[in-house]
Amino acid sequence: MLVLFRKTPILGALLAQVVALPIVAAATAPLSTMVERLPLIGLALLLQGLVAAGITRVLGLARWWLVIAFLFPLAMGTALLVGNLPAWPFGLAFLLLALVFSNTTRGRIPLYLTNTETASVLRDVMKDREATRMLDLGCGLGGVVRALDGEGRTARGVENAPAVYLTARLLSAVTGRGEIRRGDLWKTDVAQEDMVYAFLSPAPMAALWQKLKTEMKPGSLFVSNSFPVPDVEPDEIWELQDARKTKLFFYPISAAVTPME
Ligand SMILES: C[S@@+](CC[C@H](N)C(=O)[O-])C[C@H]1O[C@@H](n2cnc3c(N)ncnc32)[C@H](O)[C@@H]1O
């Protein structure tokens, strides 16, 4: 059951709110004669958020669901209390969130971006290796692709979140740097790349490695930002001197795959 919630976290988040409701109702009911209506509602919404957030942790959902679970009742309660709000801003906000994060609930790979220091290190890696082709799997807004493209290098990115892809495509067209495709990283051809880069999450790393080690050409390089491949010894780990102390894990494709002790 817990596996179902980890795979489809939105179900877990909904369950957390439903389970929290009777708990909060039971906890706040005795206060109904002692506390004014408005402060009582505020307290109930706060408790609802806290209990639901706690339940998302018990269900093993990622940390950002904790924040969503906490804020959701407060946002809904505020909207209801203020009253007479038009429905369209909520619809628009939902649509935007769906266009940006529709793939996050399925693939458990959220959007966060590689910083410029890391992109610059990746460019140096390509220069040192005389690599001319790179691919960013799940390229987000395409910052890495644009930073690495040029001076004889071809950088491409693949992205499947609609709004994120469109933004990356637009930025790439405006700057004339890199090539952005809409697509699923799992179905993307990696055979011609000298370097494949990914900044995803712990969830897909084992399966991703299975794909890359069989499909990438010998002598090419896979670099993962922050998330190592489980049970596979990287050839090198670089800790960068940027603010978030980015770690890059290097997996040369020709290297023998050594299981960890
Ligand atoms: C953490 S972001 C990294 C963005 C970019 N690579 C960077 O470093 O700035 C991961 C991206 O992968 C995208 N993504 C997740 N699953 C994907 C899939 N199956 N196919 C293509 N892109 C995917 C997400 O939408 C998100 O934009």
UniProtKB/TrEMBL annotation:
Record keywords: Membrane, Methyltransferase, Plasmid, S-adenosyl-L-methionine, Transferase, Transmembrane, Transmembrane helix
Keyword Cell cycle in annotation: no
Transmembrane segments: 36-55, 62-81
UniProt keyword Methyltransferase, yes or no: yes
Gene3D superfamilies membership: Vaccinia Virus protein VP39
Classification via SUPFAM superfamilies: S-adenosyl-L-methionine-dependent methyltransferases
PANTHER family documented for this protein: FI06469P, METHYLTRANSFERASE DOMAIN-CONTAINING PROTEIN
Protein name, per record: Class I SAM-dependent methyltransferase
Organism, scientific name: Peteryoungia algae
